[in-house]
Amino acid sequence: MQLVDNNTFLQQLGALFESTKDKGTIWLTHKRLTHDGDDTVMKEEDGSDGNREYPCIVRVTDGKKAKFSTKILSTDLDKFHSAYGALLKASMTTLRKRDKKREKQRAEQLAKRKQRMADPVVINGPKRGNGRRKRQRQVKAALKHEDIKERAARREEARTKQ
Question: 119 pLDDT band (50/70/90 cuts)?
Answer without folding.
Answer: confident
